[in-house]
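Sequence of Threonine/serine dehydratase (Prauserella oleivorans).
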Amino acid sequence: MAIRDVRTPGPDDLARAWEIVRSTVPPTPLAPATDTGPALKLETFQPTGSFKVRGALSALAAVGPSDEVVTASAGNHGLGVAFAATRLGRRATVVVPGTASPAKVAALRAFDIELVQTGTSYAEAEAHALELAARGARFVSPYNDPDVVAGQATIGYELAEQTRGPLTVVCGVGGGGLASGLGLWAAERTDVRLVGVEADAAPSMAAAVRAGRQVPVEVGPTIADGIAANLEAGSVTIDLVAKHVDELVAVSEAELHAAVRYLAGERGVVAEGAGAAAAAAVLSGKVSAEGTVVAVVSGRNIALDVLARLLTSGAP
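Predicted 3D structure, token representation.
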């Protein structure tokens, strides 16, 4: 696949994203720290259950009403684009693999979008989406897109209104859109430290940062499927993470499972595996704190049977 020419977002992009996001969805709550764990930025309260709606709103607001966008997704990003398209009156096509979660496919069908199921993997769905976009639509990557990155930065602007520094902000890292956006926000401040968290099963960003470019890695099975994939070659998020994220750490499957149970049992928060990654890193002692520690709980869209098994047996 050819490397796409994607520009790096700048201050004007972040300002535009902040305007559209705060005028469309309310700020998500910040649950204060307790004796057992960190403060929690609850992106689980987003209308689609995930922070991805922020980047989707930013990206779809950047195109005209008569233009069409195309995206590929295995779940949360597609739901974000579907929500944004419906709310903003844009035309959108969401391509998902044939193996996508039936629950997420059903949720996507509830929106006024064109839904296409093809292939057996995200990579195949993405290849088809790029083919469709080549006919004249705007391709909106889940992470390798300046407007998407800018949209994710809006979490930081909300934190600025909800906290007093200094802060250590911890977030999950897959493609790096969230970490890049938060990194650009944190670059404007002197009192914020940013820690990114990968799953041991998918250290794609750490490998890319070490090499200075995308490096294919073997992706193993993980409950954190939302952050488990190889990066797009040439992704702008690689340089942004290298420049603006202070530390990258990785968590094990056992630590992810424990974090999902902790969030549900002690904090009353339902989180998917990827959504619990930041909390897992803090709870396992892998984050050195400076000031208030905030773990971004990035999504809640976990299958109920998986959650039930995690809560009762400790295994998905």
